[in-house]
Amino acid sequence: MIKGLKICGISDPKTLNYIIQHTYPPKFIGFITNYKKSKRYVAFKKLKKLINVPKKKIHFVSVLVNPTNEILEKIKDLNFDYYQLYDVDPTKTLEIKKKYKIKIISALTISNKNDVNKFKDYSEISDIILFDSKGYHKSESFDHSLLNDVPKKLNKMIAGNIQIDDIPSFKNKDFVIDLSGSIENNEGKKDLNKIDKLLNLFVKI
């Protein structure tokens, strides 16, 4: 059974408010905090104001690619529940978790079985393991069958160009499903109609 939804790459108050107030809100909302190459990146001043809202039971996630100590210090008092870390080794991950007393999603980018098996290095440290494509912000796909041998007991999340209509095919999988590009319009902005379709579809599964 799917463990929940994460909508990632939110960057404006209207979309955020729509998701929070939805009848069937997702479990997680992600914000691109330091990866400036992403069209979904939110600069610090805007981010601080954007997420300073009542979030009900939704978990806010700071998406960080190889974060510096400077950015970690800058965001430490913001309204985040999780840090989603890309390109951070297990030692540094544990340091961040302990220092900032924050839950961790360790993101692994996958192209082969060896990439998948890196979860073993993080499984005792991180709260959730995210299996993503190599595309980072590009919403690329990867072969999800590579995850077939990942233990059921592992708290895990899956991303990588997952489409709304793909959701039913995950109904027997014990993942949190992470979507971003598939709920955007042709201009790369979040589409409220697509978000509504996603959330209403998920609750029926």
Compact overview of the structure:
By secondary structure, the chain is an alpha/beta fold.
Overall description:
- With 205 residues, this protein is of the alpha/beta class.
- It has one domain: Alpha-Beta Barrel (TIM Barrel).
- It has seven helices and eight strands.
- An eight-stranded parallel beta barrel has the order 1-2-3-4-5-6-7-8.
- α2 links the parallel β2 and β3.
- The longest helix has 13 residues.
- The protein is globular and about 40 Å long.
- The mean pLDDT is 94.
User: Structural class per helix/strand content?
Assistant: alpha/beta
Strand order of the largest sheet: 1-2-3-4-5-6-7-8
SSE string, helices as H and strands as E = EHEHEHEHEHHEEEH
Indicate the low-confidence ranges by residue numbers.
none
Strand content: 15-25%
Number of domains: 1
Shape: globular
CATH level 4 superfamily: Aldolase class I
Kindly state the number of beta strands: 8
CATH topology annotation: TIM Barrel
Q: How widely separated are the two ends? A: 9 Å
Q: What is the CATH level 1 assignment?
A: Alpha Beta
So, CATH architecture? Alpha-Beta Barrel
Mean pLDDT: 94
Rg computed from alpha carbons, rounded to a whole number of angstroms: 16 Å
